[in-house]
Amino acid sequence: MRYALIIAGGSGTRLWPMSRGDFPKQLIPFIDGKSLLRIAFERFEGFLPCENRYICAGEKHRTAIVTGVPGFDENRFLGEPVGRDTLNAVALGATVLAHRDPEAIVGVFTADHLIQPVEEFQRIINQGFALVEQSPQTLVTFGIAPTSPATGYGYLELGQPLDGGEREPATVSPELKAFRVDRFKEKPALAMAEEYFRKGSNHYLWNSGMFVWRASTLLDCVRRYEPSVFAGLEKVAIAWDTPQRGEVLAEVYPTLKKISVDFAVMEPASTDPAMRVAAIPMHLQWLDIGSWPSFAATCPHDDDDNALGAKQHILLDTANSLVASDDPDHLIALLGCSDLIVIHTGQATLVCRADMAEQIKDLQQKIASQFGTRYA
What we know:
Elements: E1 2-7, H1 36-42, E2 53-58, H2 62-68, E3 77-80, H3 85-100, E4 105-110, E5 113-116, H4 118-134, E6 138-144, E7 155-161, E8 179-185, H5 190-199, E9 204-214, H6 215-225, H7 227-240, H8 245-252, H9 261-270, E10 276-282, E11 285-288, H10 292-296, E12 307-309, E13 312-316, E14 322-325, E15 331-335, E16 340-344, E17 349-353, H11 360-371
Parallel strand pairs: 1-2, 1-4, 2-3, 6-10, 12-14, 13-15, 14-16
Antiparallel strand pairs: 4-9, 5-11, 6-9, 7-8, 7-9, 8-10, 16-17
Helix pairs in contact: 3-6, 3-7, 3-9, 6-7, 6-9, 7-8
């Protein structure tokens, strides 16, 4: 049976001060009154029933997630006592699902993407599920055609089409195609990203962080490539549907090796003759909401290219700025400004040059070290 596992464990430090430790970015209802997690959950309407959609996130966010995502059942919440990177999150989901359904095929998705149109997303994802159903030893990932030489994304180096035909540019092919993945490239330096961009999307795609695989196949890879993680999660799976779940999780999970699924599984699998790693290009609008500039792209803009994320605002002689507030009655006023990010919350206010948006995470860490969890 097909399942969706939505990973919602990010901290979102570049979206401070709205994103905080006790209320991270995926829970903020700042996209037309909905959170990114709710949007991700609803993206499968008409494709997968609610009972086949699972969410993996921090245990401390259980109540906020269960109450904030209509139709979600607490029995399908996989709570991590601590974050241990993506390998453990996806392997936990695969372990629990494999014990409940040995034939489970799992699509892994993140909670911080906006994707349009949804119908095209579902069509592409359906091909990923179908490919895994036909070829159990295939691990499918989904690639996005780069729109710039970005250094904030990992890259997929594409090999030959799986059908053996001629390579076609991923951006222009009218049909969905799957390619072998020759290598996974972590976030590159600018010069390397520019080279990838020049070679085009028929050679390099952004790694979207979305996957489809058989739960049993993924776990076999974990057993072979990261045996200590496999052994620990087996203990968790055995206890999952018992009263000992919390005790075993608290004992085992913090000891698991902290590593991404890309490093731990996808990279070694791409060179493993027993496995096949495939990439399916996604021809759609994809936006990773990981920073205030990316959030600004979701906002209405005025004639001076100001992004308006605050209900009450007045901007005079101001251009190329973002204003946002979590209080619909709070007024943000800017006079004679340009290229600023101004974010108001009840706990803290951020004023930042737009070209320094990536350094907000460093500011958040300094705030956390100085003030603890009060503002961070």
